[in-house]
Amino acid sequence: MSLLPEGLLPDSRRTCNLALSRRAAFRGLAGFLAGSPLFGYQQDPFRDHSRVPALPEMVETFDFEPVAHAKVTRQAYDYLAYGVDGEFTLRRNREAFDWVGLVSRRFADVSAVRTESNLLGMKLPFPMLIAPTARHIMFHPDAEAATHAGATAASNTPLIVSNVATFPVEKIAAAATGPWLFQLYPQPGPDYNRQTLEKAQAAGCQAVVVTVDQQASVYERSLHDRNLATSLSPVPTPQATGPRPPANPYRVPSGRLWYEWSLFDDLRRVVKVPLIAKGILTREDALLCLEHGVDAIYVSTLEVLPEIVDAVHGRVPILFDSGIRRGSDILKALALGASAVGLGRTPLWGLAAYGPSGVQKVLEILQAELVQAMAATGRPTLASIDKTLVKTEFL
Q1: Hey, how many other C-beta atoms are within 10 angstroms of the C-beta on 142?
Q2: What pTM was estimated for this model as a whole?
Q3: So where are the chain's domains?
Q4: Which is nearest to 74 in space by CA: 233, 297, 226?
Q5: Could you write out the DSSP letters of every residue in 29-84?
Q6: Would you give the end-to-end CA distance of the chain in angstroms?
Q7: Are residues 335 and 302 in contact, defined by beta-carbon separation less than 8 angstroms?
Q8: Using CA atoms in the order 145, 147, 149, 150, what is the torsion angle rounded to 10 degrees?
Q9: What is the CATH number of domain 58-227+237-392?
Q10: Over the stretch 339-368, which tens digit does the pLDDT of each residue have?
């Protein structure tokens, strides 16, 4: 080491000391790149990158959707979120709850709110079920078995198992002890329907829900996503055994264009449990359901619920789903005449976000909110809920 002052060092030594070390050079380059606006384009502007909340921190069903969005693929999320065509109906079904106001009854004893009921022979602690949705494998590796476990943990909430479930009905039924129903997409020809329904009934389903809507639905979001890559295991689509209508060039699926009311007459010969028609939207179709021996009617939008309830006049139970996100939404549907409600997207948000515990938490939040809404409006029992509880302003 030289004892000479810096200014007296040889020129070569001074040049060496002034040169950047390799570490300092990389540090400077990294700082420059980190500050470059070009790297802003590498970030995902649609996702919240803050801390994911723990399950006990979730206080409403809306809290689950962003967590689910962050955990699943875009294809899976869009499948869960999409609606028909440009999704106007999807938005309107949700907005319809804003057009129904709750009217409170004062000086009512609500120190003990009771929510139990009986639906088609099933004892329900709360008037809610999980609506049929397909391909739960997109949201959790245990698929419908995980959903069934979470639903059973939440006061034995019944699960309606989709005809296009990931696992066989026997495996789903064995996953938990709670009640479950089976949903059927009918196929032309008697063999498929008979074999499928016999299998579901042998596994212990307590009712059969027959989907009769969506004959010619087009999902624009799905069309835009059709080239997305997927690593998901394919779920077999039910195969018809009878003749199908000829294909058409207008993107209209032909699989359900053959439905006739005689379908229920044929199914009634096979189904030994209650038979439910899902997707009814008019009083005329509701009355035809009664003529063809349907045991319950499943309505798919809040706006038509009152007219169908009036037409049926208590002869069979009315189920309702579409757009429910809060316990007060459930109370509004019950006040308009529903016997129970189905929950579609919200339990799957819970499944995708936290697995079976997420399903359980979503249901428990809605159960607690329903009790709170009943207490706030002075309705201590389900029997005390009627249409005087609401004022409607449907557009």
Answers
A1: 21
A2: 0.82
A3: 6-40, 58-227+237-392
A4: 226
A5: HHHHHHT-GGGGGGS-TTS--SPPPPGGG--SGGGHHHHHHHHS-HHHHHHHH--S
A6: 90
A7: no
A8: 160
A9: 3.20.20.70
A10: 999 999 999 999 999 999 999 999 999 999
